[in-house]
Write a structure and sequence with these properties.
The chain is α+β, with helices and mostly antiparallel strands. The chain contains six helices and nine strands. The strands form two sheets. It has a five-stranded mixed beta sheet, covered by helices on one side.
Length: 299
């Protein structure tokens, strides 16, 4: 026993003797019994129920056995595919300058809504033969635009003009039904141009993107089949399927324009693909279904 404990016991025994009015030396028997009781209590283990649980609470960030409890991640975040980019993706512009006549209009520029070049070369994957291509169209005085799709040999697969209203917002471009279809495991390049001057096409403002169609693995196909509509953009994005992720989310927002959760998902998805600024803009979706007009000349 330590000196400190012995001194405490002596003090306790002396106090007991003084309180009872009996001399400590003459009542050795009482002192011995008291000492025995104190030593016995010292050897007994502490019981858990004797601790005031109000003084010992686990951290709200810990779970059983001290494991950190992690909440599910929020937002729809794009995960780029773990692969190299095709050689044709060098130096493509995500954003274009405004038309000369629109330079004083305070608007974001024409922007291809596709992953940044730093994310697997900017290639957007799709599972569909006729995916949607989304661009941000700025406020412009121009009245028409043009969409072009090229194969790996840079041959025009499709090209067609379409009318624009000049208002800023998202344009979703669909290929003509039962006509042009993307083949599996092939890379394509797509362009969207604002025709600033119909008499001088060298003044066009153009942005470019790349797309590749892939066959979905069985587990992903089953997951998508059993998922609710609001879950699919996240599933697509987490599995690197860009075109369906952004197209499905844009359609959900179009159907539920006052849903702040969907708008937060939209902003998160764009920022995860390094598309800046557009997520903060008012959402306006215009759907363009292109006519069956097959191009025969190279761009």
């Amino acid at each position: 026993m330590s000196r400190k404990k012995r001194n405490s016991l002596v003090y306790l025994l002396t106090l007991l003797s003084l309180v009872s009015g009996i001399n400590f030396i003459c009542n050795f028997s009482l002192a011995f019994k008291t000492l025995a009781v104190v030593l016995t209590l010292e050897k007994q283990p502490i019981k858990r129920e004797n601790i005031n649980v109000g003084e010992f609470q686990p951290s709200p960030n810990t779970g059983a056995l001290g494991r950190v409890t992690r909440t599910a991640s929020t937002g729809t975040r794009y995960v780029p595919p773990d692969r190299g980019a095709p050689s044709s993706t060098g130096g493509g512009a995500t954003r274009g300058l405004p038309c000369e006549q629109d330079q004083k209009i305070p608007s974001l520029p024409l922007t291809a809504l596709r992953p940044d070049n730093s994310l697997a070369g900017g290639v957007g994957l799709t599972l569909e033969s006729q995916p949607q291509f989304l661009v941000y169209m700025p406020q412009t005085s121009a009245e028409s635009a043009e969409f072009t799709l090229q194969d790996q040999q840079r041959n025009n697969v499709y090209q067609s003009k379409f009318t624009i209203k000049g208002q800023p917002g998202i344009i979703s471009i669909s290929l003509p039904k039962n006509s042009i279809q993307l083949e599996n495991n092939k890379n394509y390049t797509w362009y969207t141009s604002i025709i600033c001057d119909r008499n001088n096409r060298t003044k066009d403002v153009t942005v470019v993107g790349w797309i590749k169609r892939e066959v979905p693995p069985t587990n992903l196909a089953n997951q998508l089949q059993n998922a609710a509509a609001r879950e699919r953009p996240r599933i697509y994005a987490e599995n690197s399927i860009w075109h369906e992720a952004i197209a499905n989310l844009a359609e959900l927002i179009n159907q539920n324009p006052n849903d702040p959760t969907l708008m937060n998902e939209w902003k998160t998805l764009l920022e995860s693909a390094k598309i800046q600024g557009i997520g903060e803009k008012p959402f306006r979706l215009t759907k363009i279904e292109l006519p069956p007009n097959l191009a025969v000349q190279n761009r």
